[in-house]
């Protein structure tokens, strides 16, 4: 069984929250060698763990970003001088919908473990 198959099996278990399921999907796609700016569809959850963009993280802190972009709705990045940037430094032009500290995203993944 590949890592991707193991992650997808974990995501299919009963009791996995929608937020954890989305993060498991990210992990599965990342395990295939694709960059963390992934091609997935992520519906808006009703109860969200995402921090609002108007309450940004500390400058130069890498976070998981949810952006208004159908092609790449989830990516990693940071904020610098009130400007959100991709991990490689390019400016993010799409609207930011929310963000999570990486340790918060990891905790969500951990809640999905049996």
Q: Stretches where pLDDT falls below 50 for ≥5 residues?
A: 31-46
What summary fits the major beta sheet?
Answer: 4 strands, antiparallel
Which whole number gives the mean pLDDT?
75
**Alpha-carbon Rg, integer:** 14 Å
Strand order of the largest sheet: 3-2-1-4
**Main structural class:** alpha+beta
Query: Distance between the terminal alpha carbons, to the nearest Å?
Result: 18 Å
- Helix and strand succession? HHEEEEH
Total number of helical segments? 3
Could you say how many structural domains there are in total? 1
Strand content: 15-25%
The geometry reads as: elongated
Number of strands: 4
How is this structure best described in words?
The radius of gyration is 14 Å and the shape is elongated. A hairpin with a 6-residue loop joins strand 1 (63-67) and strand 2 (74-80). Helix 1 (3-11) packs antiparallel against helix 2 (18-31). The chain starts with a helix and ends with a helix. With 114 residues, it is an alpha+beta fold. It is built from three helices and four strands, in the order H-H-E-E-E-E-H. The chain has one domain (3-111). Strands 3-2-1-4 form a four-stranded antiparallel β-sheet.
Set down the secondary structure blueprint.
Layout: H1 3-11, H2 18-31, E1 63-67, E2 74-80, E3 83-86, E4 96-101, H3 102-111
Antiparallel strand pairs: 1-2, 1-4, 2-3
Structural key phrases:
29% helix; single chain; 114 residues; 19% strand; 3 helices; 4 strands; four-stranded antiparallel sheet; alpha+beta
Tell me briefly what this model is.
Helices cover about 30% and strands about 20% of the residues. By secondary structure, it is an alpha+beta fold.
